[in-house]
Amino acid sequence: MSDPAILTQQANDLTFDDVWEEISWRGLVQVSTDPTELRELLAGDPITFYCGFDPTAPSLHLGNLVQLLLMRRLQLAGHHPLGLVGGSTGLIGDPRPTAERTLNTKDVVGQWVGYLQAQVSRFLSGEGENAVTLVNNLDWTAPLSAIDFLRDIGKYFRVGTMLKKDAVSARLNSDAGISYTEFSYQVLQGMDFLELYRSYDCVLQTGGSDQWGNLTSGTDLIRKAEGESVHAIGTPLITNSDGTKFGKSEGNAVWLDPTLTSPYAFYQFWLNTDDADVISRLKVFTFLTRAEIEELEAAVATEPFKRLAQRTLAVAVTGLVHGLPATEGAIQAAHALFGQGDLADLDEATLEAALRELPNTTTAPHASVVQLLVDTGLTGSLSEARRAISQGGVYLNNVKVSDEAETIENAVLPGGVAVLRRGKKTLAGVFVE
Predict the structure, then answer these.
(1) CB-based contact 260:59 (threshold 8 Å)
(2) The domain boundary residue, chosen from 235, 250, 266
(3) Whether residue 250 has pLDDT greater than 60
């Protein structure tokens, strides 16, 4: 296992001249307002900045983690973060490429606000002079009447400019079109920046580059309403080297909540990173120094089969999100599943979570191994299953199966599970009723 210190050590790399140089090297800046002014701003006296997270699900995901880590780096540089969870914007959603977002009830959104605020608080320090401050945009939008909103905020927005925003124009040209509700999202986000500028002297907003139109709605509004220049940073959308969307597998997000994505599945996600992507992931998602990352980059080039960079990445990010005990449990489970440890020593919840990520089946206590090989998809037929056993390539809880008539009756582990393996690497889970 990699050095546990990488799980807890959070510091900016002092080999960079300033935090702007570091976040640029790490690939965290795709688009921004004036880079020269931003560099000077971030190298000077502490500023207040914010990033918003909408409660459209009960958990944040890997895309949000990019923002949280950028915020943490700016906080480590001495700046004061505001973590905005959008109790009002979460009620209406923002423009999506193809369809309207589902509108959730006020009670559900209110509950999710609490969940997301707790997650944001875990990644940003709540101590010191620049401790994170949590804000909810429902606090200043709920008391505002529609007339006041139109008079005080809407008058600054030009419809022609709003129509040109990428997120809006894409929807206008689609079959689905766009509702006035989602069209108004950029006005609300712009109002958020104005409110935080007035209340906290906030002069920088960060967000994904796909939200650039919304980010600049705020900078434009403050310029028109207050006559002041403020800034925005848009981070790149993280994609894999083949162009596929990062963090998505068959439509499923990788969540930060362990009940939605288990620590084992989370660890495996990072462990399976392609060689072409692993260095960029280390830059974005870990606090390893430039020298440490360059050393791992050399290892990828000379000894890729050792997968040192992937193992370091998996340990670092799983530890950051889920803590050291959960990370060690995920590693122990991975080893045990492939015969390098005792399955009986694993925590029941960790083993169950790991098996849920594998092909699996639910069965009665007396089921035969032959039938389970078929039910789990490890073989395509009963005859193939018998042949695999006769050739010595089938294992039940890491013990070789030699009898075609064997059942799992005496091999059920605590928690009512068993592990089937064919060959060295093909695994399946069995859940006994």
Answers:
(1) yes
(2) 235
(3) no
